[in-house]
Write a structure and sequence with these properties.
Blueprint (H helix, E strand, L loop, with lengths): L7 H10 L9 H14 L7 E11 L7 H11 L2 E3 L6 H15 L17 E12 L10 E6 L5 E18 L4 E7 L4 E8 L4 H7 L2 H10 L6 E9 L1 E8 L34 E8 L3 E5 L17 E3 L4 E7 L4 E8 L6
Parallel strand pairs: 1-2, 8-12
Antiparallel strand pairs: 1-3, 3-11, 4-5, 5-6, 5-8, 6-7, 7-13, 9-10, 10-11, 13-14
Length: 339
C-alpha cells in the first residue's frame, strides 16, 4: 500500500527490500497480485475463518492525490477514517477499537504512542481460526516440561496423540517436520530443529522449503503413525518495525530523504513509526491466530514401534493456505504460555 505513493529511489528501495524483482515484475502486476490474493483469502469455506483487511487513516485536513486514493481503494479496499491526529489518545483508541473488532478481540492495543504530527496511517490485519481435522483428545492433555533453553524449563499442558500424521525427518536441514491439517484448505507446519540446530534451520527456512515440504507431505507413504506430544499454548508478541526494517534495507522511508510525493503535494512525508503485533492460540480443537531451494530429504525407516515426536523445546511453525499456496503466519515458539 505504501509503495503506491512512493516515488523514485524510495519506491525502488521499498519494493526491492520486500524481495520483488522490479525489472521482471511491473508495479501494476505486483498490486494486481496482492489484489487477487486478498480476494482468494476471503471466506470461501465455512470450516475456516479468515479475515484479511486494511485501514487508511487520514488527518482530517490532509488532501491526497486522486491517483493514490483511487489506486489504494481499487487494489486494497481499505476502510477509510478521517481522525484529528492532534487528538493522539482519541486516534489511538479509534485504531485499537477497529483492529480489536476485526480480529475478534485478539489484537488489542496495537498502538499507544502517536505523534500529533502524524498525517496518515496504513493498517493491515489478518485473523485466522481453524479446527484440526484430527482434534487432540482432551483427556490426554497433561502437564509436562518444556525446555526453553539449557537452563530454563517451564511447565506446559502437553497434548498427546497416537495417530497417523504427515511427518518427515530431514537430516540435511536438520529437523523434523509435522503437518497438521485443518478442516478446510489450510495446514500448519511445525518444524522441530534437532537439538542445538535452531539457528541453522532458521537460516535455511524459506517459502520454497515450506512449499517443498508441502509437496512431499502429500505422498501417502509419509502418512505414518506417530506418538505425538505437542504443547497447548497461547503466545503474543509485538515489534516496533521502524527499529527492524532499516536493517533489512528499508532506509529512505524512515528518513528525510523519503519521497512520498505520490501521496500528497501538500506536505513532505516520511514514515515515523511502524507497529506489528501477533498472537496465536493452539489447543486440542485447533488454532486461533491474529496479526495485523531445494533440499534432499532423508526419511525415517519403518520400525516396529511408531516414532515419538515430542515438541518440548523451541520450534518453528507456519500456517499455510492450501488454496493460495501462501504463508499466512510464520513464527518461532520459544516460551509457550499456558492457555
Amino acid at each position: 500500500m505504501l509503495s503506491l505513493g512512493a516515488r523514485g529511489h524510495s519506491q525502488t528501495q521499498l519494493l526491492t527490500s520486500l524481495g520483488f524483482n522490479i525489472t521482471e515484475l511491473s508495479t501494476l502486476e505486483l498490486h494486481q497480485g496482492f489484489q487477487q490474493l486478498l480476494r482468494d483469502l476471503s471466506p470461501q469455506d465455512h470450516r475456516l475463518e479468515v479475515r484479511v483487511g486494511n485501514a487508511l487513516l487520514l488527518n482530517h485536513d490532509l488532501e491526497l492525490l486522486p491517483e493514490f486514493l483511487n489506486d489504494t481503494m481499487a487494489f486494497y479496499n481499505p476502510m477509510v477514517f478521517h481522525p484529528n491526529f492532534g487528538d493522539t489518545a482519541g486516534t489511538a483508541q479509534l485504531i485499537n477499537d477497529h483492529i480489536k473488532k476485526e480480529t475478534h478481540g485478539k489484537i488489542v492495543d496495537l498502538v499507544s504512542d502517536l505523534s500529533p504530527d502524524t498525517e496518515m496511517m496504513l493498517v493491515n490485519y489478518i485473523y485466522f481460526k481453524g479446527l484440526w481435522e484430527k482434534p487432540f483428545p482432551v483427556f490426554r492433555t497433561t502437564e509436562e516440561d518444556f525446555h526453553v533453553d539449557e537452563l530454563t524449563t517451564v511447565r506446559v499442558p502437553m497434548m498427546q496423540s497416537l495417530s497417523h500424521h504427515w511427518y518427515i525427518h530431514d537430516r540435511q536441514v536438520p529437523c523434523s517436520v509435522l503437518r497438521l491439517d485443518y478442516q478446510g484448505p489450510a495446514a500448519a507446519f511445525f518444524i522441530l530443529p534437532d537439538p542445538g540446530k535452531m539457528r541453522q534451520v532458521e537460516q535455511m527456512l524459506t517459502p520454497t522449503m515450506i512449499a517443498r515440504w508441502n509437496r512431499l507431505l502429500r505422498n501417502r507413504r509419509f502418512y505414518k503413525e506417530v506418538e505425538l506430544y505437542f504443547p497447548k499454548f497461547s503466545i503474543s508478541t509485538s515489534y516496533e518495525l521502524d527499529e527492524i526494517l532499516p536493517k533489512l534495507g528499508f532506509k529512505d522511508i524512515f528518513s528525510q530523504q523519503a519521497n512520498f510525493s505520490g501521496i500528497t503535494r501538500q506536505r513532505k512525508l516520511h514514515v515515523s513509526k511502524s507497529f506489528h503485533k501477533a498472537m496465536l492460540d493452539v489447543n486440542e480443537d485447533g488454532t486461533e491466530a491474529a496479526a495485523a531451494t531445494g533440499f534432499s530429504i532423508v526419511f525415517l525407516s519403518a520400525s516396529l514401534s511408531p516414532p515419538v515426536l515430542r515438541f518440548n523445546r523451541p520450534f518453528l511453525m507456519a500456517i499455510f493456505s492450501s488454496s493460495t499456496e501462501s504463508i499466512l503466519f510464520l513464527g518461532k515458539v520459544v516460551r509457550p504460555r499456558a492457555l
